[in-house]
């Protein structure tokens, strides 16, 4: 079922993989992309549980937009082990204007399909999603 505003459907695999990340912690992160030919959001890459935040940021293309979810583990000041699921909207300045508009107009609907996101972040370059920013947003 696509949204009339953006015309973008969400592939069932996106929702299934997100549920696996959330419930079973099968993945550290998931990168999603819009397949313009079929007007659908699809899974681009799955990050293994042992992969790091650096592995995640390295797989985001420098000149193309993406959506991503990252399961961030951290320890609170009270020494409690916690985790938060980040939704990251990646739209580098060097990506095509049409692509940025498409991702921006589809983002809210896509995000609603992924129940359980705790923190949202928008980034146009790697400095806007540095580990320091992730840590500060998680606490």
Automatic annotation (TrEMBL):
**What name does UniProt use for this protein?**
ADF-H domain-containing protein
Q: Which PANTHER family does the record match to this protein?
A: COFILIN-RELATED
The UniProt keyword set, sorted, is: Actin-binding
What does the sequence similarity comment in the record state about its family? Belongs to the actin-binding proteins ADF family.
Which InterPro entries does the record match to this protein?
Answer: ADF-H (IPR002108), ADF-H/Gelsolin-like_dom_sf (IPR029006), ADF/Cofilin (IPR017904)
Record bears the keyword Magnesium = no
Q: Name one GO biological process term.
A: actin filament depolymerization
Report the superkingdom from the record.
Eukaryota
According to its UniProt record, what is one Pfam family this protein matches?
Cofilin_ADF
GO terms of molecular function: actin filament binding
Q: Which GO terms describe its cellular component?
A: actin cytoskeleton; cytoplasm
Q: What is the lineage of its organism?
A: Eukaryota, Viridiplantae, Streptophyta, Embryophyta, Tracheophyta
Q: Carries keyword Nuclease?
A: no
């Amino acid at each position: 079922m696509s949204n009339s505003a953006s015309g973008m459907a969400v592939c069932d695999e996106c929702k299934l993989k997100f549920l696996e990340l959330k419930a079973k912690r099968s993945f550290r992160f998931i990168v999603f992309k819009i397949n313009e030919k079929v007007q659908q959001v699809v899974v681009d890459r799955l990050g293994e549980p042992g992969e790091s935040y650096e592995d995640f940021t390295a797989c985001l293309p420098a000149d193309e937009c993406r959506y991503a979810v990252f399961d961030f583990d951290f320890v609170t000041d009270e020494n409690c082990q916690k985790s938060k699921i980040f939704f990251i909207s990646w739209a580098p300045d060097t990506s095509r204007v049409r692509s940025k508009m498409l991702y921006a107009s589809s983002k809210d609907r896509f995000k609603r399909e992924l129940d359980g996101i705790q923190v949202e972040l928008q980034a146009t370059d790697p400095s806007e999603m540095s580990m320091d920013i992730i840590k500060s947003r998680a606490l």
